[in-house]
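Q: What changes when NAP is included in the input?
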Amino acid sequence: MTQSHGWAAQSAATPLAPFRFSRRDPRENDVVVDIQFCGVCHSDIHFVRNEWGNAVYPVVPGHEIIGRVSAVGSSVSKFKPGDLVGVGVIVDSCRQCPSCKAGDEQYCDVGATLTYGVADRYGDLTQGGYSSNIVVHQHFVHTVSSKLDPAGVAPLLCAGITTYSPLRHWQAGPNKKVGVVGLGGLGHMALKFAHSFGAHVVQFTTSESKVDDAKRLGADDVVISKDPAAMKKHAGSFDFILDTVSAPHDINPYLEALKRDATYAQVGLPDKPPIIHMGHLLFRRRSMSGSIIGGMAETQEMLDYCAEKNITADVEVIPIQQINEAFERVVGAQVKYRFVIDMASLNRA
Ligand code: NAP
Ligand code: ZN
Ligand code: ZN
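A: The predicted holo structure follows.
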């Protein structure tokens, strides 16, 4: 077995704490990655605190992983020891079903294997990236350019692809008015991508303290969503709105902000469902949709796009010893804009 150490939660009510465990020895198609940085996604908090009701313990969270390959299985051709690589939210899928064959492994018809907190198809519990190393099938490992700051690249593996994919799918670009709801980890990446794709971008935020940052990150306009008059000014004008908010909130004013036939896509996953006034959908034939992460080829495309355009996340790098305080600051929407754990800190006392 491959020895690993990280930080785990033992229950919904206990803080993360040091944890030793083992991972499988690499199979022929596996890559062993020594983890350098791991981003802190709000999904880690939802899961660890069992807000979605599907938690399994002990759990080592973390699915925004950057590291160096330390060993490869006998059939691995894509990678060699020393390569800088990334691992995201899924580590396996059936690779046979129509979704997998279409390159949408995240929608695998028999269920993709999440990076942590689930039994994989061999019955082993997956454990994530707040740890020293990880063993992953090469299909779910991505090449990372060494041109970019690796700490800033880590959040691209979840926050990046989760916003890149729907913005591409709904064709955010020139002559499109695009809204981003929530300026957190996902929201700030959505803003950077929508701006980079050439769309007219409006950032919605509840935090007045983030207005200047939103403009710096590429917003053409910023709306304080708690102000009904400011919301009304945009009624019927958007081609697409992407909602990245982690907590229950009223989405009806955003539906009213869409044009006829436009789409409101949800990537945030609050623990309680919203109340929707159906009239907002019916009268202008508007759509409501959702999206999770992206396929493996699209994730590589996004990483290559970021290397070309010099796009990374705005990060605050922390040692693992500060993870429990970091969770509280994420819940309070007080991080600008993603915590990333420096895994070298694992070896400190
Ligand atoms: P985050 O960094 O905490 O950002 C969430 C933002 O939502 C906050 O910064 C805040 O922005 C806004 N917000 C928070 N509480 C709010 C409230 N009560 N009312 C209105 N706005 C509020 O979280 P994240 O890591 O970006 O993740 C966001 C959500 O996406 C989470 O639910 C996560 O589980 C989900 N997620 C989904 C996928 C997927 O594949 N679909 C992938 C990753 C994450 P302002 O301060 O600007 O208002
Ligand atoms: Zn995530
Ligand atoms: Zn499949």
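Observations recorded in class: The two ends are 25 Å apart (CA to CA).
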